[in-house]
Amino acid sequence: MLPLLLLLVQCKSKKTSLQDEEEIDADEFIAFFPETTLPFRMADTSLLNASDTSLHIGYRIFTQFIPDSFLQKDFGKNARPAVYAMGRIAEKGKETYLLARAVQGKKRVVYLAAFNKKDEFLNAMPLVKAGFGNATASYGLVDKKFQITTYQERRRRGELTYKKNVYFFNSETNDFTLISTEPNEDIIENVINPIDTLAATGKFAGDYVKDKKNFVSVRDGKNGSEILFFIHFEKNNGACKGELKGTARFIDANTAQYHQVGNPCVLQLTFAASRVRIEEKGGCGTYRDVPCFFEGSYVKKKKK
Predict the structure, then answer these.
(1) Closest residue by Cα to residue 276 from 300, 253, 252
(2) Helices marked H in the chain — which ranges?
(3) Are 277 and 231 in contact (CB under 8 A)?
């Protein structure tokens, strides 16, 4: 009995509070979040309910393990929202996900944060928000396959629009990767798409999007061996922009390349499973700002 008693004394007890004056480590921080079963769904209306004060986490403690940059994007640089633990989900043999609720004034956000098996922070994303702009309804969902869905409705120019995105956590890149999107809203705002009204009947024709200011439009070429395209991107909060319209010719069944004689710019568009990957193979600095490049993966927008 004595060795067992000694073992019990040496084991850490679960923290019952996480206030800023306390000193804790990562495993204590993670264990503070109550276990949650899947599917987990949270609607913006539920965020209006009062927070459980027993699950309050001090701001210093929270940002010790999850960078405050995620909070600042939604609440502002000098804001210090109140943060509460909501839930903990462990994917067998993989990551552990924490659900945290942040509140300041009318603004409320539920964040999903991923930690590896060593209790090291990997990344985080907002799952659902309330109290922001002209959003009329929203929800977030983590299903039993650990697919993550965000949904938001907005009223724009008198019309109700929506955007539904589905993500999964990519362990190789430590990123929440967008795998499908269903917007019925305009893909761009204050950006003129010069090929928008052209024919789009080809296999790869359509609009591929990240958001309203980062998109690739593909339209039919003169024949099946080429496509017309228009790319517009804005990175770093608009500090770095690029735009290019041209004709790309297929070099294999799924890859088209833009290259004009005497022009060093070479762009490659690779199509696969309702997405397109853009790669800058040659210098295209004429069409973009210097610090950034034509690159990235875009998801095909479903036709209305």
Answers:
(1) 300
(2) 2-10, 26-32, 59-65, 69-75
(3) no
* Token pair 């890149």: residue: 173
- In contact, 102 and 74? CB cutoff 8 Å: yes
Q: What Rg value do the Cα atoms of the chain yield, rounded?
A: 23
First-to-last alpha carbon distance for the chain, in angstroms, is: 70
Q: What residue ranges define each of the domains in the chain, with the CATH number in brackets? A: 17-181 (no CATH), 206-300 (2.40.128)
Show the tokens assigned to 281: 């193979």
Max CA-CA distance within the chain? Answer: 85
**What order of strands is seen across the sheet that includes strand 82-90?**
56-57, 82-90, 96-104, 107-115, 121-130
Query: Distance between alpha carbon 11 and the CA centroid of its chain, in Å?
Result: 38
- Cα angle 63, 66, 72 (rounded to 5 degrees) comes to 70
Cα angle for residues 26, 30, 31 (degrees, 5° grid): 115
pTM: 0.62
> Average pLDDT in the 15-40 region?
89
Strand residues in 45-95 grouped as ranges (E): 56-57, 82-90
Which of 156, 152, 158, 162 has its CA nearest to residue 132? 152
Contact present, 135 and 77 (Cβ < 8 Å): no
Question: Is the CB of residue 216 less than 8 Å from the CB of residue 298?
Answer: yes
What value does the mean pLDDT take over residues 133-160?
Answer: 82
Bridging pattern class, strands 226-235 and 96-104: unpaired
Residue 169 corresponds to which tokens in the numbers above?
């956590």
In tens, the pLDDT along 40-68 reads: 999 998 988 888 889 999 999 999 999 99
Instruction: Give me the count of residues in the chain.
Output: 304
- Which amino acid makes up residue 189? E
- Closest by CA position to 181, among listed 160, 161, 166, 162: 166
